[in-house]
Backbone:
């Protein structure tokens, strides 16, 4: 019914071309997203597409948070998608990097909250892509700004 590699998704009688910018943060804003944790999260993000029809086109890591540019069918809510991403990635991190539990109290890897915004495929998508791809660059002295407010 749908081609998840196309920017426009067709699902029964619906057509969707909505991108979402999601930002999730490590619990207590701890700087735990080193290279080994990033590799585990990248692996978990790759498996989400096939199982849940959630296309993750871009992602970028900083020391304590992750930005994602995603597209998914309107049969999912934004909250459902965030919960899916957090749950799968946290389980995999705790399984493959078990010593990370010592850095966190309890058994949660991500904070309870998140940021989500829709992004037009015809407008600001490129700005969001560049912002996400430049997360965590050491050569940038100032914080990248998404909007000039």
Residues:
């Amino acid at each position: 019914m749908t081609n998840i590699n196309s920017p426009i998704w067709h699902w029964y009688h619906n057509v969707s071309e909505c991108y979402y910018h999601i930002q999730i943060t490590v619990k207590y804003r701890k700087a735990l997203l080193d290279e080994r944790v990033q590799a585990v999260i990248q692996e978990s993000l790759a498996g989400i597409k096939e199982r849940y029809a959630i296309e993750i086109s871009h992602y970028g890591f900083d020391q304590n948070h992750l930005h994602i540019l995603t597209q998914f069918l309107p049969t999912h809510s934004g909250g459902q998608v965030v919960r899916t991403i957090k749950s799968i990635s946290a389980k995999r991190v705790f399984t493959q990097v078990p010593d990370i539990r010592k850095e966190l109290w309890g058994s949660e890897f991500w904070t309870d909250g998140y940021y989500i915004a829709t992004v037009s495929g015809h407008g600001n998508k490129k700005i969001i892509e560049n912002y996400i791809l430049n997360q965590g660059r050491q050569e940038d002295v100032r914080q990248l700004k998404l909007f000039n407010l």
Remarks:
- Residues 53 and 101 are 30 Å apart (CA to CA).
